Amino acid sequence: MLYVVNVTYRRAFGAGGLIGLPDVATSASTVLRNQPYGEQADKSGVGHCA
């Protein structure tokens, strides 16, 4: 599964708009690959907090 996030925002200071700078745009992406359920180790058991 591919996740993509695109963000566009105005500059923090108004001076950028006065000299014609565009809004700031950035993008990030990541790939999520699930582990098959059958290959997961059995971690059932009783734990005790000290």
What would you call the shape?
A: elongated
Order of helix and strand elements from N to C terminus = EHE
Question: Strand sequence of the main sheet, in spatial order?
Answer: 1-2
Terminal CA distance reads: 40 Å
Count of helical regions: 1
Computed structural class: mainly beta
The major sheet is characterized as: 2 strands, antiparallel
In terms of DSSP E residues, the strand content is: 25-35%
Low-confidence stretches: none
- Quick one: how many beta strands? 2
Helix content: under 10%
Mean pLDDT: 82
What Rg, in angstroms, do the CA atoms define? 23 Å
Written overview of the protein:
The chain has 50 residues and is mainly β. Helix content is 8%, strand content 32%. It has a two-stranded antiparallel ribbon.
Q: Mind sketching the topology for me?
A:
Elements (H helix, E strand, L loop, with lengths): L1 E8 L5 H4 L5 E8 L19
Write a brief caption for the model:
8% of the residues lie in helices and 32% in strands.
Note the main attributes of this structure.
two-stranded antiparallel ribbon, mainly beta, 2 strands, single chain
